[in-house]
Amino acid sequence: MAREGADSGELGALLLAxxxxxxxxxxxxxxxxxxxxxxxxxxxxxxxxxxxxxEVVQETFVRALTGRSRWRGDASPATWVLAIARxxxxxxxxxxxxxxxxxxxxxxxxxxxxxxxxxSSVALADLISRLGQDRRExxxxxxxxxxxxAEAAEVCGVPIxxxxxxxxxxxxxxxxxxxxxxxxxxxxxRRRALRRR
Length: 197
Hints:
Family: Belongs to the sigma-70 factor family. ECF subfamily.
Number of strands: 0
Protein name: Sigma-70 family RNA polymerase sigma factor
Radius of gyration: 19 Å
Strand content: under 5%
Organism: Motilibacter deserti
Keywords: Sigma factor, Transcription, Transcription regulation
Structural class: mainly alpha
InterPro entries: RNA_pol_sigma-70-like (IPR039425), RNA_pol_sigma-70_dom (IPR014284), RNA_pol_sigma70_r2 (IPR007627), RNA_pol_sigma70_r4_t2 (IPR013249), RNA_pol_sigma_r2 (IPR013325), RNA_pol_sigma_r3/r4-like (IPR013324), WH-like_DNA-bd_sf (IPR036388)
């Protein structure tokens, strides 16, 4: 993936060489890890502990390297790994949901983040995390990771038109939701300044 310093051909060669060469496997992981990390972190949301993100990223590469014989070369290695990451995120979310269902205590207050204390970038990350799963995936893949609509469609297993529609809807949702958050973020310092006077 050229965005991370290695093109598709180089990544394909590393993936094929990884069958017999640990150094190639490590180089493959290093080349894709930043994109996979951003994608997984975005899908899991900003309140997800870093160790959970790391666990899902690690599982992604374990599945990719143990299942590398299933890569047929019809998709770029980066797209193929991001599709695996998407499935790992879904599996992680299912496991967490099952664990929470077994527990009697749920901490509903964890979802209530005071908007006035957020910086704009954290507020935007929070808004992205509130998008529906399909829209969030499409938005993060195309806008944050820079994949083309065709590549994002491959990762999500849907037609390209569906990705375009999801991105457009995600943008509209974010524009609509961002204005009140931006006002609250700007107003909080003003309120604090007025209290000091």
